[in-house]
């Protein structure tokens, strides 16, 4: 299945690592986290967007679980995301 040309993985909060013209079936990974400040959101977003295959990073600080949503090319990237968060001192649990 190809993603339509008008498919948009942007959220209002970001998308710097987009690759226009590349078709893939996106995986949306969702994590409960201990991210609790906007400054930390900026740091996490920057770090995760440096990872190849990650296209969109969004954190919902209004949710009681401080939900991190990542649109990426493969669900296999969950372990990379979790390890990156650990290195940044952030606890997380992937929600399925």
Write up what this structure looks like.
The chain has 96 residues and is of the alpha+beta class. The protein has two helices and four strands, in the order E-H-E-E-H-E. It has a domain at 40-95. A hairpin with a 6-residue loop joins strand 2 (54-60) and strand 3. It is globular and about 35 Å long. The two termini are 23 Å apart.
The largest pleated sheet is described as: 4 strands, antiparallel
Strand order of the largest sheet: 2-3-1-4
Distance between the termini: 23 Å
The helix/strand order is EHEEHE
- What is the general shape? globular
| Class from helix and strand fractions | alpha+beta
Mean pLDDT: 83
Query: Uncertain spans, ≥5 residues at pLDDT below 50?
Result: 1-17
Radius of gyration: 13 Å
What is the beta-strand fraction?
Answer: 25-35%
Number of strands: 4
What share of the residues lie within helices? 10-25%
Number of helices, where a helix is a run of at least 4 consecutive DSSP H or I residues: 2
């Amino acid at each position: 299945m190809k993603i339509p040309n008008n498919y948009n993985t942007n959220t209002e909060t970001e998308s710097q690592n987009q690759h226009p013209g590349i078709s893939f079936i996106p995986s949306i990974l969702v994590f409960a986290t201990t991210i609790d400040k906007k400054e930390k959101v900026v740091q996490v977003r920057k770090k995760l967007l440096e990872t190849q295959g990650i296209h969109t990073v969004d954190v919902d600080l209004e949710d009681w679980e401080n939900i991190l949503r990542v649109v990426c090319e493969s669900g296999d990237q969950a372990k990379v995301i979790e390890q990156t968060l650990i290195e940044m001192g952030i606890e997380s649990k992937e929600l399925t």
